[in-house]
């Protein structure tokens, strides 16, 4: 996809205000709300749109919004040296068929990469590793569970010596599934594999941006981080 020029506004052909579109995309992906929930909340604020408009706006602007957040985050964290990844896989039903969502989380709890496959084997793990390494560089240590495709794929890539396994070591990746599971219930499961891949990637980038780890900070620091996150989001795609 060609990079959008700064002088071109993505909202120039829409009658709705850019502020309303930014509010819709943030509400839908940041909070566990359905399309109709967003429609009702906007109506209370005096913005009357259909829930299908919410879907259209998210499909149109959501990937661009998430890509900007991901690009800025990667530029900040690629220089870290003692970078630990936690890998895990999630079983997701798509039209009654089991799919596998491979996920990589760093030691700070931020979601790095999500990749959906139909199979649970070495080739799927290898594709996931190549995608994560291409976007984020090589980590110092990789924590995995006992799944056999992991060592096979890492051996082929020459990074098997960085693998680490142990009891309770991978809780960071296990807990990262909870926000996506909440959204899966609200959305009444996913209908297509492509929709799952797109939403998982976009949701991870937005969740990382607003994940301030409230239990580790005081009230003033938390308020400052929230204000800074909102201001940065309003500046994106302006």
Topology readout:
Layout: H1 18-30, H2 35-44, H3 51-77, E1 84-94, E2 97-106, E3 111-117, H4 122-136, E4 141-143, H5 149-157, E5 163-164, H6 171-175, H7 178-186, H8 193-210, H9 219-235
Overview features:
14% strand; 238 residues; five-stranded mixed β-sheet; globular; 9 helices; alpha/beta
What does this molecule look like?
α4 (122-136) crosses α5. This protein is globular. The longest helix has 27 residues, at 51-77. Helix content is 52%, strand content 14%. It has 238 residues and is of the alpha/beta class. The two termini are 19 Å apart.
Q: Give the overall silhouette.
A: globular
- Helix and strand composition category: alpha/beta
Identify the strand order in the major beta sheet: 3-2-1-4-5
How many β-strand runs? 5
Strand content: 5-15%
Please summarize what this structure is.
The protein is built from nine helices and five strands; from the N terminus they run αααβββαβαβαααα. With 238 residues, it is an alpha/beta fold. Strands 3-2-1-4-5 form a five-stranded mixed beta sheet, with helices on both faces.
């Amino acid at each position: 996809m060609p990079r959008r020029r700064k002088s071109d506004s993505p909202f120039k052909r829409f009658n709705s205000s850019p502020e309303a579109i930014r509010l819709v995309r943030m509400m839908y992906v940041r909070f566990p709300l359905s399309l109709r929930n967003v429609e009702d909340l906007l109506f209370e604020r005096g913005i009357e749109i259909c829930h299908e408009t919410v879907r259209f706006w998210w499909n149109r602007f959501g990937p661009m919004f998430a890509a900007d957040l991901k690009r800025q985050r990667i530029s900040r964290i690629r220089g870290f040296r003692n970078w630990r990844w936690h890998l895990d896989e999630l079983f997701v039903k798509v039209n009654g068929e089991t799919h596998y969502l491979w996920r990589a989380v760093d030691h700070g709890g931020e979601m790095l990469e999500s990749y959906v496959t139909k199979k649970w084997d070495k080739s799927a793990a290898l594709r996931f590793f190549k995608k994560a390494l291409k976007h984020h560089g090589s980590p110092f240590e990789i924590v995995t569970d006992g799944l056999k495709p992991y060592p096979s794929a890492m051996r082929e890539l020459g990074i098997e010596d960085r693998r680490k396994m142990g009891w309770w070591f991978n809780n960071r990746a296990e807990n990262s599934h909870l926000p996506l599971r909440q959204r899966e219930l609200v959305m009444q499961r996913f209908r297509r594999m492509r929709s799952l891949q797109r939403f998982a990637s976009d949701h991870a980038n937005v969740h990382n941006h607003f994940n301030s780890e409230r239990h580790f900070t005081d009230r003033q620091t938390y308020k400052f981080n929230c204000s800074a996150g909102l201001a940065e989001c309003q500046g994106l795609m302006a």
